[in-house]
């Protein structure tokens, strides 16, 4: 025990003597939270759009102005022909061009249906989907409004309409910040855990100090625990600091128990630190450790459900996420913070994480050898 | 009982055989030098004896403990200074020393007596980070750290490589003092002149030990006749000497070429040979073999085997 304490003390000294360390611990969470939380939103505003109105009727004008009235769209293009409209997309004058065909009004009134074409720039597939969804909802509104008007005039467009209204639970305003911040906190903790722990062990190899350590009576477990404890503490501190900012600046709801969050974080960190240790047994230099960590983190991160929902992934990809610790922690974090889930609600997460930690730690200790 | 006992050790890295059938015994309280060029296998042998590397075959003990079975016991009683400076560069002199003391469950104060002579020289810099010390200072600190738990055996892997002559001299003075305290010292060096400072030496080349003896015995066992030769055209001289009948070796040694010749008690035969080959300003005189000459002779014998 005494030896572990001395290794931890030595490690802390080294950590705080590293000039890039303090900024990393304090500045990184602030920047990540402030920038990422505000930047990562699926809401799109001010989409440039154009209308090719071949009908030039009161109804077609009303449809166009309905788009103009939406906060999501700004009219920037006024094409005069189909070719012109396509060119507008090509030259990036607009992301969306609405083509209203001839006889739009006549067809709508007479045959109760008419067609409208949307040309959407789908280079950014995600954005295109959102623009399409916005457009459809505007057209739906238009149908309802005009249908009401038309009932009195000639024939109803839609004789009956089912109105759907949504109530978003746990995040009533569908606020992306509320949704993102817990995930970003997980990211922070993971970064510290995986990067720093793997690099710190590899550094001993790279500089050669491991030779000196290996000929001492320090036991394998003492060295590993001594090496990883500081990063465990720093990561938990980071989480505290991040939660503090989340509350102070973004007013994220803390519906569940913070103790539960920290308890989960502790189990999670054991897993992440062990992944870092495994990486360090494969790498000989800090650079290699960085690249391996980065490779693993990018996969974990993109498949974590932070940016794209796991449910929308193909089944085989969803199966991969079963082995992604980040996915569990993000899910648990959102459940506890936003929904106020208790221990029993996330007990499955806990169980999986505990198994995960145990297996990875065992593998890491097995891989780490003092003798070649 | 010997302090270090090595019997028939072999070690290969993938395809390269680093050590071939190495055997040696080091007495207690002896300064034993392992002398050989880079790549001879010195570090490999050190790493096996310090329990960092597993041998392929053979056996080795340190203070009676087997290097594989009793590695835990060995780690408590040895001090190791790797060839590369391997203390924490971002910790201060004092912090490094204290750290290694605590790791061995002891304190600097308890062992101050042993390291005092060395430590006083670096004490003025005790607050300085180890990475900012000069080469000689680093060696002294590393030696202090290796001694802080009063080891019975000290392993020094090329401790003086890259250190200035004055510091080298001081370093060997320190080793002599440590010897008086009964510490066994196994030291490796590529510098032949340091062989004179060891009690016994092993000449090692390409993973094989060529000879183990005292310096005097090795030098007196020199079998050939050694001449220092010089002429106006040194590069051609070197070439011509190698063609001379009965030559064992010829290699440049300062401003002379040392020629080791069999059955040639005086230099006249050599002189007339060189004159016949058109050399001018020829200078030939017999010299006493140095450890380097012995090394070259043994090396040639090994190769001609």
Total beta strand runs of chain B: 14
User: What portion of residues of chain B belong to β-strands?
Assistant: 25-35%
Straight-line N-to-C gap of chain B: 34 Å
Distance between termini of chain A?
26 Å
Given helix and strand content, the structural type of chain B is alpha/beta
Q: Characterize the main sheet of chain A.
A: 4 strands, mixed
Structural category of chain A is: mainly alpha
How many domains of chain A? The number is 2
How are the strands of the biggest sheet of chain B laid out side by side? 6-7-8-3-9-10
Mean pLDDT of chain B: 88
Can you list the strand order of the major beta sheet of chain A?
2-1-3-4
CATH superfamily of the largest domain in chain B: P-loop containing nucleotide triphosphate hydrolases
Q: Which oligomeric form is depicted?
A: heterodimer
Give the arrangement of secondary structure elements:
The complex is a heterodimer of chains A (372) and B (305).
Chain A: H1 2-17, H2 21-39, E1 47-53, H3 58-69, E2 73-77, H4 82-90, E3 96-100, H5 104-111, E4 117-120, H6 125-153, H7 176-207, H8 209-214, H9 220-250, H10 258-282, H11 286-302, H12 315-321, H13 325-339, H14 347-367
Parallel strand pairs in A: 1-2, 1-3
Antiparallel strand pairs in A: 3-4
Helix pairs in contact in A: 1-9, 2-7, 2-9, 3-6, 7-9, 7-10, 7-11, 7-13, 9-10, 10-11, 10-13, 10-14, 13-14
Chain B: E1 4-13, E2 16-26, E3 31-35, H1 42-49, E4 57-62, E5 65-66, H2 71-77, E6 78-81, H3 93-103, H4 112-122, H5 135-147, E7 153-157, H6 165-180, E8 184-189, E9 200-205, E10 208-213, H7 215-220, E11 225-230, H8 234-243, E12 247-253, E13 256-261, H9 268-276, E14 283-286, H10 291-304
Parallel strand pairs in B: 3-8, 3-9, 6-7, 7-8
Antiparallel strand pairs in B: 1-2, 1-4, 4-5, 9-10, 11-13, 11-14, 12-13
Helix pairs in contact in B: 3-5, 4-5
């Amino acid at each position: 025990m005494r030896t572990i304490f001395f290794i931890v003390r030595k490690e802390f000294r080294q950590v705080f003597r590293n000039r890039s360390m303090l900024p990393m611990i304090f500045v990184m969470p602030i920047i990540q939270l402030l920038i990422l939380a505000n930047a990562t939103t699926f809401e799109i505003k001010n989409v440039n759009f154009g209308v090719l109105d071949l009908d030039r009727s009161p109804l077609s004008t009303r449809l166009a102005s309905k788009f103009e009235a939406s906060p999501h769209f700004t009219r920037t293009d006024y094409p005069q022909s189909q070719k012109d409209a396509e060119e507008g997309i090509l030259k990036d004058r607009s992301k969306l061009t609405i083509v209203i065909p001839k006889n739009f009004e006549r067809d709508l009134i007479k045959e109760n249906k008419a067609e409208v074409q949307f040309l959407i720039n789908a280079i950014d597939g995600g954005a295109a989907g959102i623009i399409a969804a916005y457009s459809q909802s505007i057209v739906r509104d238009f149908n309802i409004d005009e249908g009401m008007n038309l009932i009195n005039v000639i024939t109803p467009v839609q004789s009956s309409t089912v109105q759907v209204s949504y109530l978003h639970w746990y995040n009533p305003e569908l606020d992306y910040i509320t949704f993102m911040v817990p995930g970003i906190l997980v990211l922070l903790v993971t970064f510290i855990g995986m990067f720093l722990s793997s690099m710190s062990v590899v550094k001993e190899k790279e500089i050669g100090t491991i030779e000196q350590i290996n000929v001492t009576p320090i036991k394998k477990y003492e060295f590993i625990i001594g090496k990883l404890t500081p990063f465990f503490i720093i990561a938990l501190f980071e989480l505290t600091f991040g939660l503090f900012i989340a509350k102070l600046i973004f007013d994220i709801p803390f519906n569940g128990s913070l103790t539960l969050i920290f308890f989960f974080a502790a189990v999670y960190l054991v897993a992440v630190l062990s992944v870092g240790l495994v990486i360090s047994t494969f790498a000989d230099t800090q650079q290699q450790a960085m690249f391996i960590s980065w490779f693993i983190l990018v996969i974990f991160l993109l498949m974590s459900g932070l940016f794209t929902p796991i449910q929308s992934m193909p089944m085989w990809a969803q199966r991969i996420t079963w082995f992604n610790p980040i996915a569990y922690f993000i899910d648990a974090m959102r459940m506890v913070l936003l929904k106020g889930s208790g221990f029993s609600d996330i007990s499955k997460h806990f169980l999986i994480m505990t198994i995960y930690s145990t297996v990875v730690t065992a593998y890491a200790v097995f891989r780490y050898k003092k003798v070649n | 009982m010997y302090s270090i006992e090595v019997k028939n050790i072999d070690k290969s890295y993938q395809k390269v055989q680093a050590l071939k059938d190495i055997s040696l015994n080091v007495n207690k309280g002896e300064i034993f030098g392992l002398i050989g060029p880079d790549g001879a296998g010195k570090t490999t042998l050190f790493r096996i004896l310090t329990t960092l590397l597993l041998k392929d075959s053979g056996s080795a003990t340190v203070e009676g403990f087997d290097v594989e079975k009793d590695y835990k016991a060995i780690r408590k009683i040895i001090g190791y200074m790797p060839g590369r400076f391997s203390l924490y560069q971002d910790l201060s002199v004092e912090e490094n020393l204290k750290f290694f003391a605590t790791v061995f469950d002891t304190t600097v104060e308890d062992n101050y007596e042993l390291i005092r002579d060395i430590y006083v020289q670096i004490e003025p810099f005790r607050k300085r980070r180890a990475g900012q010390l000069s080469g000689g200072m680093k060696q002294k600190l590393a030696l202090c750290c290796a001694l802080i738990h009063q080891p019975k055996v000290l392993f020094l892997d090329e401790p003086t490589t890259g250190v200035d002559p004055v510091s080298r001299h001081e370093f060997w003075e320190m080793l002599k003092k440590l010897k008086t305290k009964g510490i066994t010292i196994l030291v490796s060096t590529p510098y032949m002149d340091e062989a004179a400072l060891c009690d016994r030496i092993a000449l090692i080349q390409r993973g094989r030990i060529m000879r183990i003896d005292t310096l005097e015995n090795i030098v007196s066992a020199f079998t050939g006749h050694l001449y220092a030769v010089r002429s106006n055209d040194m590069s051609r001289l070197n070439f011509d000497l190698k063609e001379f009948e009965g030559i064992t070796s010829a290699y440049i040694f300062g401003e002379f070429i040392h020629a080791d010749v069999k059955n040639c008690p005086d230099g006249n035969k050599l002189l007339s040979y060189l004159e016949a080959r058109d050399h001018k300003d020829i200078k030939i005189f017999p010299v006493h073999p140095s450890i380097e000459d012995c090394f070259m002779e043994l090396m040639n014998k090994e190769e001609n085997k």
